[in-house]
Backbone:
């Protein structure tokens, strides 16, 4: 099943709901926002809008040779003229926040929306229905519902095509947990396994052609629901935390529990789970919450892993992306799913995850609404300055970062002026990696270069100020730049991904 | 996972008195001569297998020596009852709680065995090893569990005709039995024990575990116990059967308010198992949670099975293991799941003797030197409990009677049985005309008939042994046993596979044999043969006086009349089914190369009906193969009797004599001891002769062989089915009346013959 959006799970209890939104940081460029889309899940809302941004760009112009005799001033010893001009570029903004903030956010948008001719907001996700009336009242826009799966796939295609290091492999015990994949020029076909309440397994063959080839009712909702019944723990995150501390072997019946060791003739090792929860069938004892949660997590992850492998084999697909709230930002589930896929395919298929998986629905809904602008005709680039990084809101990771940005997570994408393609002379475009050293995988190199860039920051700030000698507030802006870039460097030190 | 045996769970260990006295007549039969043992010990059930020999009384006929004066009585041949030893496999299933009592019992009754070893398999084999060795003095020799399971599965699929069935909860008959395919490989076996093992079986010795899952019976049991505090597997299933999964599961419509059309998902589909318990702040009932759990596990296994079947291109998927065994609830959910995922392309198949597979396999491993796979085996209905005899849900009466002992006995057949090579499509051939499991009205009628006829059968059995005083007592025992079988079948028509007139007749024969009435009709047959033989020459002479065309008709009428009691006149043409004109036209053409003739009754039928017909065929230049029963059944002529009769006729008839001498008339046995005829289980020699002689005509006569069975059988050569319907109910069914005649001459489509119009009843 699809339904990722109905049960998005981050906490709605811990946050103060009447926050003041910092206009500099979120909902940027709202004034010129043209087109909206919204994806409302069970607990998270993802808003997308298209806006134009005024940029200062430096232009160079050759002096006119004909003028040389006429104007003496022009006949300096300079080769060409530099001027700073204003240019307007298109940018896509995506913001993710908890449903609890939805009213505040809608008010904020209403207040800041200056000149828009938009009449409609595209909506998707299970919550779209629930909040329809609120959105229409607050924004004065008509809510136009879009098919959830279509949006998901559209969004997925978009990020795979436009964001170079979108997909990654998760390897818990490796030096770098995240191994990013280079973008294939041809992203199709692929398998998308969306683990929401249930599981939907979708084969995507082209931009417009996809099919739900399978699914399972054993998904995130099952982990949550059974987990809640077994452990009396009602929160999804807490269940995952319990699971990460438990020992499944005390609840599961292993091959060695039955045969005293491995079952060699069938190729089954002793540590393999023969029966999930098999020990609780007959043992007259209490099991710890942690152990039961762990066993449940293994059971569900292994099952989904096996189903994904079988569908991948049956349809001859080697790229399998996993998404949905069960996966989203949870290293525990990424690990168990990866483990399961490795086990069942003996390494033939890799479990791939997406950095912007949470935005797929919103991106897709936006694209549906923007079809007249042909967004797929352009190339888009992630704007690192305006985008939060992977896992910025994951509770396990980096609490400092989480405290700072509240629970807002952002992605901004700039429309590039020119469509970008492969150099036709590349020997093998699919294996081409531009970068010589991958700092994510090389801790020593990473340390060195982060240090270098921090050291060089002062010099860069000075140069920036010096480049605009006539503008008094240049120093102030340069200081802001210093803070932002230093912060990014700090973030990267903690989360090289 | 393979561990079906570890957690056998279905029968209760709490309700039974563990110090029972075992009834030696009924269980552990023939232990005295038991030769070879195997045991499969599961989590709660033990399955014991042994091979033994059984002494049977058989009726033999012997021609009187011509040169001895005394022999010149008026009797044609001598009948003697002899002892014959046949091999039988016994399988008994009982609760582990009885294991010690059973081992003691075996020890006490084991008289002369040279066995030193007992083959053992199953998770419990380890636990009870010491006990078995101490009690029986046999060395326990462990065998691989999965190998045993597969071996056992191959064996039952090959040897038990209605072994596999489809389960359909809401159909008129819950169990739809499958006909045996001549080629059982390849297939997928999904064994649902604690976990799930998915095994691809490609040949007798080649199998591979291609997949599995940890979400199996143990998960249902374990999670169920945690959720409902109900510790017993059976009780969990009972809870589940009463629950509503929709209160716990999140359905598609719970999310989208209806179906999700663009993805083809209906609103009632389960979107997320236990999805509602994630957020709802309420208590869920035990029943509802158990039901949701059952659906979750069954659907998951169903989907995995389908995917593996597709991936490996397998269309036959058998399910077994304690999760399935005898539980209509799980058979239903698994079937539902398979139908859902394959849209009907793959059928979920279950096995009647699934619980015995491990024991059978272990036994076969130990018996390899005896080449058990070289023989054909037949289920002995008299000694076998039916399907579900110990299922707690079903038939409490039956359960009380048999305790918790369930039995299977298989007789080694003297001859290896194969398909008739002339079957048009062996894999779709179904011998029986009416499946009484699926036809409630027909079932009622026939069960009533057989019960009504029981007194007569008992009388005849007693009369057949006038000199033996205790015959009455044995006949009474026979009456009780057969009546009980009929009662069981009334409640559980599926107990022995598809219920058919044939299986009712065969069960009666097995029960008669069981109580040493090997051939109650022997004397009657002898008398009738005697009388008929006296008229043979006269009959032949009067036939020869007729014109060719008159004679052909008279020959047919002769065969039909032999099928009748003399007082009843033969129905006037047109008959109920009448393709006589086509047959006559065909006879005007070139002679057949060879005719295979399945004969029916003794007396007038064989001597004055069949033999003149055979004589005419021989005269036309057609070779004839006469196929008769290997063993006695009702008043059917047996191969032994027919040999003597043919010799006698040859002595008075030069045509028959020449036929025998020139080897143009051959007598073979069918391999059967049934009044009906299963063309897929015939003596290997018969099949060989049929092939060698390039048989191009098959003649089947009599109600048992041509109406109850084979009425719709399609052959690859010309065929002639002749019978008089001597049962008004059946006549009515076929649109005729009592004593209607069926004369069905058929030419297979695409075989240009003189006149290839084949008639079917209008």
Residues:
């Amino acid at each position: 099943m699809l339904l990722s959006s109905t049960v998005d799970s981050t906490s709605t209890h811990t946050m103060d709901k009447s926050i003041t939104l910092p206009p500099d940081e979120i909902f940027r460029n709202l004034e010129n926002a043209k087109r909206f889309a919204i994806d409302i899940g069970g607990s998270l809302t993802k808003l997308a809008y298209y806006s134009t941004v005024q940029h200062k760009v430096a232009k160079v112009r050759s002096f006119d040779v004909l003028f040389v005799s006429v104007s003496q001033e022009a006949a300096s010893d300079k080769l060409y003229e530099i001027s700073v001009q204003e240019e307007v570029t298109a940018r896509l903004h995506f913001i993710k926040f908890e449903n609890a903030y939805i009213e505040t956010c809608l008010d904020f948008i209403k207040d800041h929306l200056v000149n828009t001719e938009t009449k409609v907001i595209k909506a998707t996700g299970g919550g779209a229905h629930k909040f329809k009336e609120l959105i229409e009242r607050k924004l004065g826009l008509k809510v136009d519902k879009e098919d959830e799966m279509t949006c998901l796939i559209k969004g997925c295609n978009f990020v795979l095509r436009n964001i170079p290091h979108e997909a990654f492999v998760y390897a818990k015990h490796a030096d770098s947990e995240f191994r990013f994949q280079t973008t294939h020029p041809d992203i199709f076909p692929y398998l998308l396994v969306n683990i929401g309440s249930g599981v939907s397994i979708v084969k995507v063959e082209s931009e417009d052609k996809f099919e739900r080839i399978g699914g399972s009712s054993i998904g995130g909702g099952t982990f949550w629901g059974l987990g809640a019944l077994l452990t009396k723990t009602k929160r999804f995150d807490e269940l995952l935390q319990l699971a990460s501390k438990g020992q499944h072997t005390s609840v599961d019946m292993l091959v060695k529990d039955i045969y005293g060791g491995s079952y060699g003739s069938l190729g089954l090792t002793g540590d393999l789970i023969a029966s999930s929860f098999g020990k609780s069938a007959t043992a007259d004892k209490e099991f710890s919450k942690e152990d039961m949660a762990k066993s449940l997590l293994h059971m569900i992850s292994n099952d989904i892993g096996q189903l994904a492998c079988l569908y991948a084999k049956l349809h001859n697909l080697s790229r399998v992306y996993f998404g949905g709230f069960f996966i989203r930002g949870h290293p525990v589930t990424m690990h168990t799913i990866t483990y399961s896929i490795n086990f069942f395919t003996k390494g033939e298929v890799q479990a791939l995850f997406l950095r912007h998986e949470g935005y797929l629905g919103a991106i897709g809904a936006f694209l549906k609404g923007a079809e007249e602008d042909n967004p797929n005709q352009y190339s888009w680039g992630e704007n690192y300055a305006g985008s939060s990084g992977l896992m910025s809101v994951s509770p396990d990771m980096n609490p400092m970062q989480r405290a700072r940005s509240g629970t807002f997570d952002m992605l901004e994408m700039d429309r590039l002026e020119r469509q970008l393609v492969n150099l036709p002379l590349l020997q093998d475009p699919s294996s081409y990696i531009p970068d010589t050293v991958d700092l994510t995988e090389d801790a020593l190199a990473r340390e060195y270069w982060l240090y270098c860039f921090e050291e060089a920051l002062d010099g860069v700030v000075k140069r920036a100020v010096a480049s605009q000698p006539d503008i008094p507030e240049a120093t102030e802006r340069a200081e802001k730049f210093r803070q932002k870039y230093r912060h990014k460097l700090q973030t990267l030190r903690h989360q090289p991904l | 996972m393979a561990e079906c045996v570890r957690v056998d769970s279905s029968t209760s260990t709490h309700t039974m008195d563990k110090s029972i006295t075992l009834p030696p007549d009924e269980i552990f039969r023939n232990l005295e001569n038991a030769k070879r043992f195997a045991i499969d010990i599961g989590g709660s059930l033990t399955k014991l297998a042994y091979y033994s020999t059984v002494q049977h009384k058989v009726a033999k006929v012997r021609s009187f020596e011509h040169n001895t004066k005394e022999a010149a009585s008026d009797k044609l041949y001598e009948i003697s009852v002899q002892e014959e030893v046949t091999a039988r496999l016994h399988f008994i299933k009982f609760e582990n709680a009885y294991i010690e009592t059973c081992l003691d019992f075996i020890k006490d009754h084991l008289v002369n065995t040279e066995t030193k070893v007992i083959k053992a398999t199953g998770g419990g084999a380890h636990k009870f090893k010491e006990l078995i060795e101490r009690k029986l003095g046999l060395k326990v020799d462990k065998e691989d569990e999965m190998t045993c399971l597969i071996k056992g599965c191959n064996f039952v699929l090959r040897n038990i005709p209605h072994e596999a069935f489809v389960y359909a909860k809401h159909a008129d008959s819950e169990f739809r039995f499958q006909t045996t395919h001549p080629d059982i490989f390849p297939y997928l076996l999904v064994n649902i024990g604690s976990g799930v093992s998915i095994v691809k079986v490609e040949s007798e010795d080649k199998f591979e575990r291609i997949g599995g899952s940890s979400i199996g019976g143990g998960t249902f049991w374990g999670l169920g116990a945690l959720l409902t505090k109900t510790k017993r597997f059976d009780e969990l299933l009972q809870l589940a059967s009463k629950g509503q999964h929709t209160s716990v599961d999140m359905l598609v419509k719970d999310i989208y308010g209806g179906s999700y059309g663009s993805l083809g998902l209906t609103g009632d589909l389960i979107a997320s198992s236990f999805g509602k318990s994630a957020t709802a702040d309420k208590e869920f009932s035990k029943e509802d949670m158990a039901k949701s759990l059952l659906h979750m596990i069954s659907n998951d296994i169903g989907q995995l099975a389908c995917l593996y079947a597709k991936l490996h291109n397998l269309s036959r998927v058998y399910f077994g293991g304690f999760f399935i065994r005898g539980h209509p609830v799980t058979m239903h959910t698994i079937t539902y799941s398979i139908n859902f995922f394959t849209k009907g392309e793959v059928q979920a198949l279950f096995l009647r003797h699934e619980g015995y597979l491990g024991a059978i396999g272990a036994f076969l491993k130990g018996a390899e030197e005896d080449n058990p796979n070289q023989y054909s085996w037949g289920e002995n209905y008299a000694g076998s409990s039916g399907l579900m005899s110990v299922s707690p849900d079903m038939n409490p009466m039956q359960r009380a009677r048999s305790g918790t002992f369930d039995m299977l006995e298989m007789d080694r057949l003297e001859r290896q049985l194969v398909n008739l090579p002339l079957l048009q499509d062996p894999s779709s051939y179904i011998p029986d005309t009416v499946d009484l499991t699926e036809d409630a009205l027909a079932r009622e009628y026939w069960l009533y008939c057989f019960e009504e006829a029981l007194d007569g059968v008992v009388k005849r059995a007693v009369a057949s042994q006038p000199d033996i005083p205790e015959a009455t007592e044995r006949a009474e025992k026979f009456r009780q046993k057969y009546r009980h079988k009929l009662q069981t079948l009334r409640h559980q028509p599926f107990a022995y596979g598809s219920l058919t007139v044939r299986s009712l007749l065969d069960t009666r024969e097995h029960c008669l044999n069981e109580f040493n009435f090997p051939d109650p009709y022997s004397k009657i047959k002898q008398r009738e043969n005697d009388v008929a033989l006296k008229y043979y020459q006269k009959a032949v002479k009067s036939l020869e006086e007729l014109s060719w065309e008159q004679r052909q008709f008279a020959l047919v009428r002769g065969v039909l009349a032999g099928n009748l009691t003399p007082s009843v006149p033969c129905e006037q043409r047109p008959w109920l089914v009448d393709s006589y004109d086509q047959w006559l036209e065909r006879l005007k053409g070139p002679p057949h190369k060879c005719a295979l003739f399945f004969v029916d009754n003794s007396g007038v039928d064989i001597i004055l009906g069949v033999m003149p017909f055979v004589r005419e065929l021989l005269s036309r230049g057609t070779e004839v193969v006469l196929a008769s029963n290997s063993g006695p059944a009702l008043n059917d002529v047996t191969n032994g009797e027919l040999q003597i009769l043919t010799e006698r006729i040859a002595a008075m008839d030069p045509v028959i004599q020449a036929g025998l001498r020139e080897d143009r008339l051959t007598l073979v046995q069918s391999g059967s001891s049934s009044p009906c005829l299963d063309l897929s289980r015939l003596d290997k020699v018969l099949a060989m002769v049929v092939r060698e002689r390039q048989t191009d005509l098959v003649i089947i006569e009599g109600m048992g062989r041509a109406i109850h069975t084979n009425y719709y059988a399609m052959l690859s050569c010309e065929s002639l089915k002749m019978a008089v319907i001597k049962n008004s109910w059946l006549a009515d069914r076929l649109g005729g009346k009592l004593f209607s005649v069926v004369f069905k001459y058929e030419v297979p489509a695409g075989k240009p013959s003189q006149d290839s119009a084949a008639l079917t009843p209008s």
